[in-house]
């Protein structure tokens, strides 16, 4: 068996140990005579799986008691609509746009109700390379919520802990009580997180959590029960919470694999340990880009370069295409940049080992030597 060095943006590589355990248990989970995806979501076996997954996630992220954990479907894209359906309550919401995903969230919410653009860092031609200065932002003290995306997967712009904390403080001072809502799809579980700063956190699973088909929502309980009249039953967070994510059949296999990923993260010492490895991987990759004499270039400002998604360019689009072709021949996958921005992108989620980054650096050096 050969597994490629996988830098896919999502669905993305999963920890080898998790895949091996899932394979081991595929036909017969814990001696029940069937795989976990073949049995009722209401039976004893699966109830144990989802309860353990939730307990481990709560421990990893120190999720306070007054937050519900929901295992939903529809991807993060559905959250772009479900958040305003549940939380606008006839009011207006503030949106901060720092990349393609928060822009999508803003546009979708505008279809549901009233929104206000706090700021967009788009600098023409769909480029996003920075975060706004917090002092320049004006907050609506009456907003139903304030929406952001703390890691922009396509543009590689991330709000690191220090920025996130300052933004939270600024909102708490200027718009007290306005809940922060974040799309954390591409960096949840990459580092410790202060859940209490947020009213709601959501993430599509297919990067740092598990297989696609599962969407994680962590929501403060006072935000339940505010859905607009006419909201479909299944889209009301209150109903999902009251039914422990089992209003209908959940994505059982994806929840099972996510549970294995949570165990894997705990076995690695928890999120502070995982974050240290993630920082090292990212630092080495950015150092190689910055130290390449301009052959490789990152457009993103130093203070907000993503630890998870590293987009970069080469001097010409033809060279980028050649880089992708040759990387694939050399055993790498997923390095082609998103179609909307081109270039190269290395996604270095939790399950991408340091050795994969080292292999990439080696390839990048050789490619530069041959083509600079
Ligand atoms: N938000 C972010 C930050 C993402 O990275 C993605 C997927 N790449 C989405 C939203 C859309 O998620 P989904 O495909 O699960 O709807």
Described by the principal axes of the CA atoms, the overall outline is globular
Q: Tell me the quaternary state.
A: single chain
Q: Identify low-pLDDT runs.
A: none
Number of strands: 13
**Helical proportion?**
25-40%
| CATH topological fold name of the largest domain | Aspartate Aminotransferase, domain 2
CATH architecture of the largest domain: 3-Layer(aba) Sandwich
Number of discrete helical segments? 10
User: What is the residue-averaged pLDDT?
Assistant: 97
Span between termini: 34 Å
Lateral strand order in the biggest sheet: 2-10-9-8-5-3-4
SSE class: alpha/beta
Alpha carbon gyration radius: 21 Å
Q: List the ligand species.
A: 4'-deoxy-4'-aminopyridoxal-5'-phosphate
- The CATH superfamily of the largest domain bears the name Type I PLP-dependent aspartate aminotransferase-like (Major domain)
Largest β sheet strand count, sense and barrel closure = 7 strands, mixed
How many domain units? 2
Explain what the structure shows.
With about 375 residues, the protein is an alpha/beta fold. It has ten helices and 13 strands. It has helices at about 15-25, 45-60, 75-85, 100-110, 160-175, 235-240, 250-265, 270-290, 315-330, 355-370; strands spanning about 5, 65-70, 90-95, 115-120, 145-150, 150, 155-160, 180-185, 200-205, 215-220, 310, 330-335, 345. The strands form four sheets. It has a seven-stranded mixed beta sheet with strand order 2-10-9-8-5-3-4. Strands 1-12 form a two-stranded parallel sheet. Strands 6-7 form a two-stranded antiparallel sheet. β3 (about 90-95), α4 and β4 form a beta-alpha-beta unit. α3 crosses α4 (about 100-110). The longest helix is centred in the C-terminal third of the chain and has 20 residues, at about 270-290. The model has no long low-confidence stretch (mean pLDDT about 95). Bound molecules: 4'-deoxy-4'-aminopyridoxal-5'-phosphate. 4'-deoxy-4'-aminopyridoxal-5'-phosphate (PMP) binds near residues 10 and 186. 4'-deoxy-4'-aminopyridoxal-5'-phosphate (PMP) binds near residues 10, 76 and 183.
